[in-house]
Amino acid sequence: MDFDHIQFYVDDAQRCRDWFTQVLGFQPLGSTTTESDQIELVHSGQIVCVLCSPLATQGSKSAVTCYLQHHPPGVCDLAFRVKDVKKALQQAEQRGATILQPLIIEQQDKGELRWGKVKGWGTLTHTLVERCGQTTFLPISLISATPPLLYQTHAPEGTSVTPLGFTQIDHAVLNVSENQLQTAVNWYQTVFGFQTQRYFDIQTHRSGLRSKVLVHPQGRVKFPINEPTSVNSQIQEFLDHNHGSGIQHIALETVNIVDTITQLRARGLSLLDIPPSYYSPLREKFESRFPHLDWLAIEQQNILVDIEGGAESGILLQTFTQPIFKQPTFFWEIIERRQQAQGFGQRNFLALFEAIEREQQKRGVFL
User: Which pLDDT does position 361 carry in this prediction?
Assistant: First the structure.
């Protein structure tokens, strides 16, 4: 199982497309309208985002409108690519999942697209996709396109990266309500066959969370699930503003995080600030052992560093954007893994939490 695409419901798909291309350096992949919605596709490497907004004249008929009446803009569907979608849908239904769209098989000129949709946690859905040969990215059968369909074929494996260097989705993070963590974990393990890889319990003097990292044994999907452990937790703030559970952030993998962040800042993207006090002990401990790291640039760009062990161990470099919509809900993580680093920056959790808490303080969360 791998990530296939991310679908967002937003107020204005074209404006959102422009932000993705001008700020994140994504490239347009396609554009069309349905009876009720405007749809824009953008991609970077193997990362594909589907941006949907209601047409002004048909807003009341749109599923996007219904969603936005109850939630701020955000991720509505996290789509997984599977080897056998028919089997995956049958197993999901047998294991208690609600099938929102039974299997559809669509023959196309150069390939075959098979897909269905499963209800996920809360309002989240999961489209399951199987691609054989060359296919349009989204099913033609879903779209009564006017003007005619403009979708290109799905970006193939090994697609060259954009100038910003985003290559693939590293992981996606789901926030659930207090005391719902284990129930949600059990559901994803039962329905999709995920396995628990790690467990975190992070507390500061102001807030905290618990998290379990799920991975799929047959693919690259990593799927942490968080729950709050305090009323001031960043997770609880997300739940309050999102009006329920949802995808809090998605990590975009890059081949050179220093260059990527430098360019993102030049394009006006706001990122979390990390205080100089984080870097002094870090450099004192690791700089002589890892002189190949550009420590000055890492500090200048506010990048967090997690070194997993000895000189040959993995190195995780990561940073986080500010929320990309008006509400403090969805944000991006930018991540680079060196020497096959496998962690999630657990040594950075305290610094990250404190950085997020400083932003919460500016919003008046802490009185």
Answer: 73
